[in-house]
Structures are given as structure tokens and as C-alpha cells.
Specification:
The protein is α/β, with parallel strands linked by helices. The protein has a domain of 149 residues: D-Amino Acid Oxidase, Chain A, domain 2, CATH 3.30.9. Helices cover 30% and strands 22% of the residues. An eight-stranded mixed beta sheet has the order 5-6-4-14-15-16-13-17. It has a six-stranded mixed beta sheet with strand order 8-2-1-12-19-18. The relative contact order is 0.19.
Length: 416
């Protein structure tokens, strides 16, 4: 670090960083826009960014009811991967991973991508057969995936317990070496700055209270900061998607559930990959600050609350200690929860709605963060052209009428 940089940091620290330039503007909403994106999380910001970058549509507003990135984008465990079973899922998540791989350079903003590898564990013969099937399907789609023996897993993760006498012995697994983690808030901030630089208005503390329609077509939005006219609206509000759909007069086949995670006290580096187990249901990685980041499955009850129940934490920690006995003395520092919207087939809805000009991006369940740039890229195409891109054509709302579901329930091991 140069002497100038050191003195600059000291100067800004003494003033409480009040003199730092803003990363994006904070404009008043205009009376009308070509496109309005509802939801200032990763998916909404990515959509706005790619609308401006790829399609030249800069007269765009992103409306966020709270603070930017304060929903699921800031409440996840940062895992990224593309090792999905079904062809349509694999193609979409692989597009997202490819965009992640160049995102820091594209945005000139370090999203702290760490492709440290992602290991999935098998504890039964059924697990092992399913993992082998999945690895073969993934590789047929041109995505990296490998089978692992217990010895290879132990070499990658020396602290893991592979004793055959434990309740759920590790008998094999798989790895996607290009998987890993990225910094969730950095992704949101980088996309926000990139969109703002291309003329997009990012409007925080602006909740949508109604959707205006005429003759089956959207004409604008009612918000806590006044009415906004527009002919195109993109909804990307995750767990609150059903609330916005109700404003537009239709129902969605989704349920909202809390999904919680936690971090331990910081310790020295002891695990340099992401490890997941679908059978005992825990996944763990270590942050750059040394905290162990852990998560599991969704709470079974429906809720819009950003918190969860104690039994999920208890089972998560029991599984973690069984796999990694060295964790037993650690203290939990904090926990948090997000709201996930889950479709019956555990796959998203990205496309048109019964209301002309109203587009929907929802139902990602626990796969939202890893899909951020890919989701925004295809959603921007859909909004700009009025038709889905081939990568998201299969993820239409219509599939729940036709029965052409994309059943990722259980197909991708632990669903994070």
C-alpha cells in the first residue's frame, strides 16, 4: 500500500468517512420510466445493470422498500456453484457462474470471488449412486464435476471425520472445483454502482403499494414516494413475490419460508473449501475473517419473518460437530434469517405474467445468490424483448399448467 493510500485511509477514518464519494446517486423518483424494477437486491440490480449494458435501456428505476441489498442478498451464505442435475438448471446456473468469473473485472469492483471448490458428501449407498448419476449428468452438460473417495475427501479437508463407526460415515462424494463463495454485499454494491454509472436511478426507501393496470396491461406503480408511470415492470422481490402478484390480481404457486444461518467466532484458517452434506444437512465454509459460516435447510413453517426456529440450529450444529469434531468448542457469534420463495419443483419462475408488461423473477428458493448475474442477464433480455431468452424459456409460469416441471427437489443434494 502506498504512503498516499495509508494517509488517505487515516484521513477518512478521522472524519467518519463522511468525505468518501457516494458509490451511486440517491435521486428523487421521476414521474415516468421506460422500465421499473421492483426489488433492490442482487437480482433486481443485475437486471437493471444488464438492461443498460446489453440492451441500451438506461431510463430505468430500481425501487427498494428498505436499504439496498438488505433482503436475501445480505442474508445468505455466499455459496456459488452450477452443478445442477437437469439440463435447463445446469445451463442457467453455469451462465451465472461464468458471469461471476468475470464480474470483478467487468464492474471494476472486487466481489471477492473465491473458487475454492465445493465438496458434496455421500453417507449411504443411495447417496453414492445419486452423486455418481449427478456427476455424469453434469459432465455431459460440459460442467466440471468429479467423484471423490473418502481418502480424497480427507486429503482436501483434513479436519473431517471419515471414521466408519460414526452414525453417518462418509463413503464418498463429489467436487465442483469452480464452485466456491463470493462476497454478497460486494456483488450488490458493484452492480449498483455499475447500473448507476449507466444512468439507472436507484431509489431506496420506496415501497410499492399498488400496481396500476388498464385493459390487462400495466401502466404504472403506486409507491410511498408517489406514483410512477411505466409500461414495463420487473418484479424481483424474492419472498414477497406473492404479495406483489396479488397487487396485480393473480396468484403464484410459491410458499415463503425462513432460511437461517450462523457464524462462529473467528479462528485461524482450517477449511479452505465448501463442504455440504444432504443427509445430515449442513454446509460449512470459512470466511476471510476466520468465521465458520454454516447453514442447513428451510424452516418448515411459512413466514415473512427474517428469523427462524431453534430446532434447525440444533440439528445443524449436531451435524457439523459429527462431521468436524474439532468444531465442538467453538462459540456461535450470531445468526440471521432470510425469506425464501419456494416453487413446487424447487425451480424459479423467470418470465411473463398474465398482465402485459409485468415480468416476474422469483421462486429461487435457496439458490438465489448463486444465480444473481445469470438471473439478471436473462431477465433483462426478457424485459427488453418481451420474450424469454432460451436459457430461461423453460422457467415460465406456464409450466405449472402444462406439467413440464423442472424438479430440482432433492436432485442437487443440499439445496444451497
Amino acid at each position: 500500500m502506498s504512503r498516499y493510500s495509508i494517509f488517505s485511509l487515516i484521513r477518512h477514518a478521522r472524519t467518519g468517512h463522511r468525505d468518501w464519494p457516494r458509490a451511486w446517486r440517491s435521486p428523487e423518483p421521476k414521474p415516468a420510466y421506460d422500465v421499473v424494477i421492483v426489488g433492490g437486491g442482487g437480482h433486481g440490480l443485475a437486471t437493471a445493470y444488464y438492461l443498460a449494458k446489453e440492451h441500451g435501456i438506461a431510463n430505468v428505476a430500481v425501487l427498494e422498500k428498505g436499504w439496498l441489498g438488505g433482503g436475501n442478498t445480505g442474508r445468505n451464505t455466499t455459496v456459488i456453484r452450477s452443478n445442477y442435475l437437469w439440463d435447463s438448471s445446469a445451463a442457467l446456473y453455469e451462465k451465472s457462474l461464468q458471469l461471476f468469473e468475470g464480474l470483478s473485472q467487468e464492474l471494476n469492483f472486487n466481489v471477492m470471488l473465491s473458487q475454492r471448490g465445493l465438496v458434496g458428501l455421500a453417507h449411504t449407498q443411495h447417496d453414492l449412486r445419486e452423486i455418481a448419476r449427478r456427476v455424469n449428468a453434469i459432465r455431459l452438460n460440459g460442467i466440471d464435476s468429479e467423484l471423490l473417495t473418502p481418502a480424497q475427501i480427507k486429503e482436501l479437508v483434513p479436519i473431517i471425520n471419515i471414521s466408519p463407526t460414526v452414525r453417518y460415515p462418509v463413503i464418498g462424494g463429489s467436487i465442483q472445483r469452480r464452485g466456491g463463495v463470493a462476497r454478497h454485499d460486494a456483488v450488490a454494491w458493484g452492480l449498483a454502482r455499475g447500473a448507476d454509472m449507466r444512468g439507472v436511478d436507484i431509489i431506496e426507501n420506496c415501497a410499492v403499494t399498488g400496481i396500476r393496470r388498464e385493459g390487462g396491461r400495466v401502466t404504472g406503480l403506486e409507491t410511498t414516494r408517489g406514483a410512477i408511470a411505466t409500461g414495463k415492470v420487473g418484479i424481483a422481490v424474492a419472498g414477497h413475490s406473492s404479495v406483489l402478484a396479488a397487487m396485480a390480481g393473480f396468484r403464484l404457486p410459491i410458499e415463503s419460508h425462513p432460511l437461517q444461518a450462523l457464524v462462529s467466532e473467528p479462528i485461524k484458517p482450517i477449511i479452505d473449501t465448501v463442504v455440504m452434506s444432504g443427509t445430515v444437512h449442513v454446509y460449512v465454509s470459512q470466511s476471510d475473517r476466520g468465521e465458520l459460516v454454516m447453514g442447513a435447510g428451510i424452516d418448515v413453517f411459512n413466514s415473512y419473518a427474517q428469523r427462524g426456529s431453534l430446532p434447525v440450529i440444533e440439528s445443524m450444529l449436531a451435524a457439523a460437530v459429527e462431521l468436524f469434531p474439532i468444531f465442538s468448542r467453538l462459540k456461535m457469534m450470531r445468526k440471521w434469517g432470510g425469506i425464501v420463495d419456494v416453487c413446487p419443483d424447487a425451480s424459479p419462475i423467470i418470465g411473463l405474467t398474465p398482465v402485459d408488461g409485468l415480468y416476474l423473477n422469483c421462486g429461487w428458493g435457496t439458490g438465489g445468490f448463486k444465480s444473481t448475474p445469470g438471473s439478471g442477464w436473462v431477465f433483462a433480455h426478457t424485459i427488453a424483448t418481451g420474450a424469454p431468452h432460451p436459457l430461461n424459456a423453460a422457467f415460465s409460469l406456464e409450466r405449472f399448467h402444462s406439467g413440464a416441471l423442472i424438479d430440482e427437489h432433492g436432485a442437487a443434494a443440499v439445496a444451497h
